[in-house]
Write a structure and sequence with these properties.
Blueprint: H1 2-18, E1 25-33, E2 39-48, E3 53-60, E4 62-65, E5 71-78, E6 81-85, E7 91-96, E8 111-114, H2 130-137
Antiparallel strand pairs: 1-2, 2-3, 4-5, 5-6, 6-7, 7-8
């Protein structure tokens, strides 16, 4: 009986240790720029310093156009809405996802707040391929 209890405790301890979370620390945050020099995303390097493991997390921004179809900035998806950025990557505002009004207006994207500073230069949109993004991030396209 005592051996069975000890075995169960050791088995539960082994299961609990396998479910422990990894603590990632941010090493660097680099903007990803396209050929026009606009910030189209960011590369974040994270480190599990206990094990020496490093990963790169890439977030690409969605282009934001005005009513005339001119590229005015980019949107970074965050929890609870969207962070609005200008062409240089500076935060200029936010759009909050408010689900209370979705019953009346299902196509509502939420409340948008934009803080205008100096006007940014107007740019044209270009299509960036996956190979170009891998090159911008400085990653190897091959899996080891």
């Amino acid at each position: 009986m005592r051996l069975a209890v000890t075995t169960m405790i050791l088995a539960l301890a082994a299961l609990a240790s396998g479910c422990s979370s990894v603590e990632w620390k941010q090493m660097s945050l680099q903007p990803l720029r396209n050929e026009q020099g606009f910030v189209v995303g960011q590369k974040e390097t994270l480190c599990d310093c206990k094990n020496g493991e490093r990963i790169a997390r890439i977030a690409l921004f969605e282009p934001r156009f005005d009513e005339h179809g001119v590229l005015v900035g980019y949107e970074e998806k965050i929890r609870g809405g969207v962070q609005l950025r200008d062409l240089n990557g500076r935060r200029i505002g936010a759009r909050f996802a408010d689900v209370r009004s979705r019953g009346n207006n299902p196509n509502n994207k939420g409340l948008t707040i934009i803080v205008h500073a100096q006007p940014a230069p107007v740019g044209t949109a270009s299509v960036t391929t996956m190979d170009e993004l891998v090159g911008l991030a400085g990653l190897s396209p091959y899996i080891n």
